[in-house]
Amino acid sequence: MSRAADLLHGHGEVLKLARLLGHEPHELAYLEQFPPQTLRELRDGVTETLYDTDGGSLRRLAAASRVLPAKLTATLSQRAFGPLLSARLAGLLDPQRAVDVAGKLPAPFLADVAVELDPRRASELIAGLSPRLIADVTAELVAHREYVTMGRFVGHLQDDALAAAIGAMDDRALLEVAFVLEDKRELPRLLAKLPQPRVAGIIGAAAHDDLWVQALDLLNHLSKPQRRAMVTATRALDAPARQAIVQAILEHDLWDEAALIAEHDDTLAATLSAGLRSLPARRRREVTATARASGLRGL
Amino acid sequence: MPDDAFDALCAQLDGAAPEPLRRLSAAELSHLANAIRTARRRQAKALAQAGESALGHIPRVLRGPVRKIVG
What is the pTM of this model? Predict the structure, then answer.
């Protein structure tokens, strides 16, 4: 992972932790000095602690809901428990029962619950939700730019639900979600569901919103055919957008990613060489050495 | 002092905190430990309030059995 991607992932982890603790992210800015893995470990620890706190009371509440009709439990979720406690309770209910209750709740409320939920504790519930409901909840999360939340759920969705979720995401959301995905090994599965025009759409979104660090990080995790499809899509971009890719590579030292692009785009080295000429001599020498060490030829 | 603050953070996490966090200052470690403590208290308070509020929405005939289970 590039240094730039590392910093962005670290920032994403601080966002997740801040949400868990009910704080503003800037109040935990002192944590951004740590690598994403350390912050993930801390967040997992906090999640465990919060789920274990009051575990007995939560289990009794979940047990009480078993004697109530699903519709009444859904009403209680909205009017008495709210999203936070509903999220805590979700993993304690019998999965089929939880699916029945979820089916009686409106998508905006379920989206609020999703923000608070640790999907690892409700995997069976998530797998049991209909693709239609998943799409409705995803649309709500996209509207609120809850990319981090969606990134936590992808690994728990069945294939048909994943396809429905992707259908509810615009191209920018898809790129942002791919970047913050909890388990990057899920990326090829996520991208495999994409119709070809959406690959070009992701590249278009990266160009439109200057999200090249995210897009180039994505390249690192794709299969070779998927990578080729993405690089091919960049060739359709106009000159300023292609120049923006070169700038992102130069600015953030994304040489491993550049080497991956160059495997499928023999014009990149020449464009990069032109970009390198604008750098001071010493920096140019350093960058050229790093680029060559990454396997980039023709500079 | 930072060691005490790190231990206090570990206590809030019911065991261990990631070792690299020892690099934080005592003030930062205390802030983090307090943030976790506050989140736990907020959750406990929400739970207590939810229990009371829930009973008001449950039909009278079911309140007895629910009270028995919740305790």
Answer: 0.84
